[in-house]
Structure formats: structure tokens, C-alpha cells
Specification:
Elements: E1 11-17, H1 20-25, H2 27-32, E2 34-46, H3 50-58, E3 62-70, E4 73-80
Parallel strand pairs: 1-2
Antiparallel strand pairs: 2-4, 3-4
């Protein structure tokens, strides 16, 4: 179970467009911001590192809904389970 975000707020949709290292480092607080039945969209991910980012968010109770790639970049869409 992830910790609550510092603000205590949760959202229906959370979007982050930052590099993979940062997305992995922020997995716990970003996942905690996703409300019940909420959606998380992550982009700015190097395609070769998308599996690493995906694992970080699956471990925090989200399920992957979609993956989009364009060239060397990927975007992952998760939903709260």
C-alpha cells in the first residue's frame, strides 16, 4: 500500500511527462495521487526503459491499460485496480 500524498489530495487523472529515472523515483507519491478508479498517464519514457517504469507502478497497485510508442519514446496508461 502506498503512502498518501503529502497534500492528502487524490485526483481522477494524473499526468507526468518526465524522464524514466524520475518516474521510477516518484512512483510512490505519484501512484498515491491516483484516486479510486483513477487514471495515470506517464510519458517521456525511453522505450527501452518502459518495462522498468511499468514494474514500479504495478508494484504500487496500478494496472497497465495501454502502451503507446513513437520512435524511441513511450507512454504508459495505468488505472487504479
Amino acid at each position: 500500500e502506498s503512502a498518501a500524498p503529502p497534500s492528502g489530495q487524490v485526483f481522477d487523472v494524473v499526468v507526468a511527462n518526465i524522464y524514466s529515472d524520475t518516474l521510477v523515483a516518484l512512483a510512490e507519491p505519484l501512484a498515491a495521487c491516483v484516486g479510486p478508479a483513477g487514471t495515470l498517464v506517464l510519458s517521456g519514457i525511453e522505450s527501452s526503459r518502459s518495462a522498468e517504469v511499468e514494474r514500479a507502478y504495478l508494484a504500487r497497485g496500478l494496472r497497465r491499460e495501454n502502451v503507446r510508442t513513437r520512435g524511441e519514446w513511450a507512454a504508459l496508461v495505468f488505472r487504479r485496480s
